[in-house]
Amino acid sequence: MLNFVICDDNLNILDRLEKMLENIFNNNNFEASITYKSDNSNDILNFITTNKVDVILLDINLKSKKSGLELAHEIRKKNKDAYLIFTTGHLEYAMLAYKYKTFDYIAKPINYDRLEETIIRLFDDISETPKKYISIDNKNTLINEEDIIFIKKDSTKLLFHTLTNDYDTYNSFNKFQKKLPSHYIRCHKSYIININHIKNVDPVCNTINFKNGDSCAIGPKYKTGLMEVLNDYRNIE
After folding, report:
1. Torsion-angle region of residue 189: left (phi > 0), alpha (psi -120 to 50) or beta?
2. The dihedral formed by the CA atoms of 114, 51, 158 and 135, expressed in degrees to the nearest 10
3. Is residue 54 part of a domain?
4. What are residue 41's DSSP bridge partners?
5. Which of 9, 51, 86, 219 is close enough to 188 for a disulfide, judged by CB 3.0 to 4.6 Å?
6. 74-115 confidence digits (pLDDT tens)
7. Which of 130, 158, 186 is the endpoint of a domain?
8. Do 149 and 160 touch, CB atoms closer than 8 A?
9. What range defines the domain where residue 32 resides?
10. What share of residues in the chain are helix, strand, coil (percent, to 5)?
11. What pTM was estimated for this model as a whole?
């Protein structure tokens, strides 16, 4: 699930952008949502500071003490990875906007087809680069790999338990494990865990406790290998 944030000082444009994006998500089966929108640059910055944000649509010519470019500068101090898409009616700002690792620049008035083209390209970019996102099915369902706490085999389904949501899909446990980065490890016949989320391990009760309060079992067959891997990760408490 990708989290979008929109900032524009025109409330009508803000509402229109929200509706356009929601239609694009629905029409393309994109797992995405608009988690916040505002015409206030300080509110946007505060939200981005305390919440997970993947994509930001930002008006350059904000009618406030802080321009969109100045806000982008502050955003990059807080979030270096979010996709930035600038919108504005002032074409002379286009080159300046790319200074802030900008994914795209869309001139106003915003055309639906132009916006859709950008969002489709964004999802293609995410799925094709060895970044942080894992595609779990053929419906463009993308999950940030750092958000996954564990993957559980449940009959013919795989349950992806993340920091914010649960996702399930029909997939092969063994085949999917081969796609995962090295910090994922099998700890049980029914569990693959992200070791970056481990708080501690109870070797007596054969239980893994995660930082968010969740836990899962350790299978006897996997215990020795698990403990060897964990000993190599100094960040485990």
Report:
1. alpha
2. 30
3. yes
4. none
5. 219
6. 888 888 888 999 888 766 555 565 667 788 888 889 999 999
7. 130
8. no
9. 2-130
10. 40, 30, 30
11. 0.57
